[in-house]
């Protein structure tokens, strides 16, 4: 399974939703709370091409986007293949 990186903030319902979906897949997630981590926030901005909303999700080197993007991959039946790569 590729490395999964999720940038989050506390009390973010979209972050919880994304993490819950990945959890149902048995994925191990590296979560970075950017609310108090300036370096983590800067890293997210760089990797996500300036997108500032959370969550920002990366599977391997692929930028997935946010929670809605992750859910769209699941609905399209593409998420399992990405996680298995």
Keywords for this structure?
alpha+beta, 85 residues, 44% helix, globular, 4 helices, Glutaredoxin, 4-stranded mixed β-sheet, 21% strand
Care to give the gist of this entry?
The chain has about 80 residues and is an alpha+beta fold.
Describe this structure in words.
- The protein has 4 helices and 4 strands, in the order βαβαββαα.
- Helices cover 44% and strands 21% of the residues.
- A 4-stranded mixed β-sheet has the order 2-1-3-4, with helices on both faces.
- Helix 1 runs parallel beside helix 3.
- This is Glutaredoxin.
- It holds the Pfam family Glutaredoxin.
- One of its GO terms (cellular component) is cytoplasm.
* SSE run: EHEHEEHH
Tally of separate helices? 4
Strand order, largest beta sheet? 2-1-3-4
Q: Which consecutive residue ranges, at least 5 long each, have pLDDT under 50?
A: none
DSSP helix fraction:
40-55%
Derived from helix and strand composition plus strand pairing, the structural class reads alpha+beta
CATH homology group: Glutaredoxin
CATH architecture: 3-Layer(aba) Sandwich
**Terminal residue distance:** 6 Å
Instruction: Give the percentage of residues in beta strands.
Output: 15-25%
Taking all Cα atoms into account, the compactness measure Rg is 12 Å
Largest sheet, in brief, is: 4 strands, mixed
Number of extended strands: 4
Which CATH class? Alpha Beta
Shape summary: globular
List the helices and strands and how they pair.
Elements: E1 4-8, H1 13-24, E2 29-33, H2 38-47, E3 56-59, E4 62-65, H3 67-75, H4 79-84
Parallel strand pairs: 1-2
Antiparallel strand pairs: 1-3, 3-4
Domain Glutaredoxin: 4-64
GO molecular function: glutathione disulfide oxidoreductase activity
GO biological process, one term: cell redox homeostasis
